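ok so i was messing around last nite and threw this chain in just to see what happens. nothing serious, just curious
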Amino acid sequence: MTKIERVFNYMNQGNTITQKEATELFGATRLADIIFRLKARGVFISDKRLSENDRFGDKCNFKMYWIKNV
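result:
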């Protein structure tokens, strides 16, 4: 099973995913590319931009993705 399939199956179960989760769960270090490829295959994916402070207190921006129910 490929990382793309693993991420898709995870998201298809109703889960959201961020880059940090993708790395920890699946070893996928290029989540944006996986999302791009899934969208190219016709999967409807929504995203939301989030921000948190990193361990040094600096603002860090990232996206959370989920499969949109049509």
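not much to say yet. The mean pLDDT is 96.
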